[in-house]
Specification:
The protein is an alpha+beta fold. The chain contains eleven helices and 18 strands. Helix 2 crosses helix 4, helix 4 packs across helix 11 and helix 7 packs antiparallel against helix 8. The longest helix has 27 residues. It is elongated, with a radius of gyration of 24 Å. It binds zinc ion (2 copies). One zinc ion binds next to loops. Pfam families: M20_dimer, Peptidase_M20. This is Amidohydrolase.
């Protein structure tokens, strides 16, 4: 970064957004101007090919939650090369990289590393063919949630910030988290903030099926609380031709799956969000055998805690009622309230959106409605709240109308689909530009 840029920064007058700055911030001036924009743009275009190569490598080598040793190893090595002090093994396969650059706020940037147990069907030349053992069974593995993009953007942001070191001060805390569901609580259990400090600011992002030139920020609660259930219905097995000598757990499981939806449609307050979905049923081995167990697993999502309590109680009561109705042995019923929702600080959301709008096309950075997904980044926010978690799109803008809605929903496969296929370069460009802007905006010299 040139001296001219620095001296220009020094002259940058205080602008309105600073009035919103939280007290933790010693940041003195907003450096997000045209010069910053062109510096970031040229650094990004100079390095984008390398970052796409990193992305494709992560994509081709996915690892399941808490098994991300290869990914973590690459991230640790890269951060060390950039001058970060790296501590591995925080939350099992997680790691923390610290870079001190003068007196200033402690700013956390977080990426998740895990992939999912499903078979990729994108047909890309860098598609995953990885298979692994998962809970005793062989499974394919795919980066179907875009965490490969998160890791590439994370490393690209670290590199960009190191290059722009003269423009900001404070300490960067780069957190690579395992397992998007459960990894953050493991890092908290390892006392991440006791060891490295409680962040003054936190930023994270998630990619998803919108246009790759867009960034969406939700002010306040941005996603849902998550719970789940795992129920084993115990019956009495026997010959398919003599059902009266059995208690059929497949009948029980089938009734359960259907009756669950009446908890949503008849018990949940109509105006509130809540979802129950069954994602896995396992039972039986042959058409003429009534098995003795059937296992049903599912997920529950909600925005308001009282709605969650109602839904989870409904799941449990429905399972118990099905057992009673069948006169079956007790079921093994596990219903859990898991992930907490992510809340974005409203003032920091405004401030971040304003800054990003100066660097990315202003009409492509906008406030959006909450999503129904979940994400355990919320666990970190039990220790601090001054944080923004934003979304970045991954697909060709021509696939969306002017409101951002897909023209054909089947052409923009979402997260967890075997066809989920971000367009690497523009997705990473938008991600690194947005994240670098968010960070420098609160660490300006
Ligand atoms: Zn994810
Ligand atoms: Zn996911």
């Amino acid at each position: 970064m040139s001296q001219t840029f620095l001296s220009r920064l020094a002259r940058t007058s205080l602008c309105g957004v600073l009035a919103l700055a939280p007290l933790a911030a010693p940041a003195s001036a907003a450096p997000i101007n045209d010069k910053f924009k062109s510096n970031v743009a040229s650094f990004v275009s100079e390095h984008i090919d390398d970052w796409v190569a990193v992305y494709k490598d992560f994509h081709a080598h996915p690892e399941l939650g808490l098994e991300e040793t290869r990914s973590a190893g690459i991230i640790a090595a890269e951060l060390r090369t950039l001058g970060f002090e790296v501590t591995e093994g925080i939350g099992q396969t997680g790691l923390v990289g610290i870079l001190r650059n003068g007196k200033g706020p402690l700013v956390m940037v977080r990426a998740d590393m895990d992939a999912l147990p499903l078979q990729e069907k994108t047909g890309l030349d860098y598609a995953s063919t990885v298979q692994t053992d998962w809970r005793g069974e062989n499974t394919y593995v795919m980066h179907a949630c875009g965490h490969d993009a998160h890791m590439a953007i994370f490393l690209a942001t670290a590199q960009t910030l190191v290059d722009m070191k003269k423009d900001w001060k404070g300490t960067l805390m780069f957190v690579a988290q395992p397992a998007e569901e459960g990894g953050a609580s493991k890092m908290m259990a390892d006392d991440i903030f006791g060891k490295f400090g409680v962040p003054d600011y936190g930023f994270a992002l998630h990619v998803g099926p919108s246009a790759y030139d867009t960034v969406q920020i939700v002010k306040g609660q941005m996603n849902s609380f998550a719970g789940g259930f795992d129920i084993v219905f115990n019956g009495i097995g026997g010959h398919g031709s003599r059902p009266s000598t059995t208690i059929d757990p497949i009948m029980m499981a089938s009734k359960f799956v259907v009756d669950l939806q009446s908890v949503v449609s008849r018990e949940k307050p109509e105006q509130e969000f809540g979802v129950i979905s069954v994602g896995a049923i396992q039972a039986g081995s042959a058409g003429n055998i009534i098995p003795d167990t059937a296992r049903v697993r599912g997920t529950v999502r909600w925005y308001k805690p009282a709605v969650g309590e109602k839904l989870l109680a409904g799941v449990k009561r429905t399972a118990e009622a099905i057992v009673a109705m069948a006169g079956a042995p007790d079921a093994e019923i596990s219903v859990r309230s898991g992930g907490t929702a992510v809340f974005n600080d409203p003032d920091l959301s405004e401030k971040t959106l304003t800054a990003m709008s100066k660097v990315l096309p202003a009409d492509k950075v906008y406030f959006a409605a909450p999503t129904t997904g979940s994400e355990d980044y919320g666990e970190f926010l039990k220790a601090f709240s001054n944080s923004v978690y934003f979304r970045v799109g991954v697909y060709d803008p021509a696939l969306f109308d002017e409101t951002g809605a897909p023209l054909d929903v089947l052409k923009v496969p979402g997260n967890h689909s075997p066809f989920f296929a971000p367009v690497p370069a523009p997705t990473i460009e938008t991600g690194v530009t947005a994240m670098t802007t968010a960070v420098v905006n609160v660490m300006a010299k």
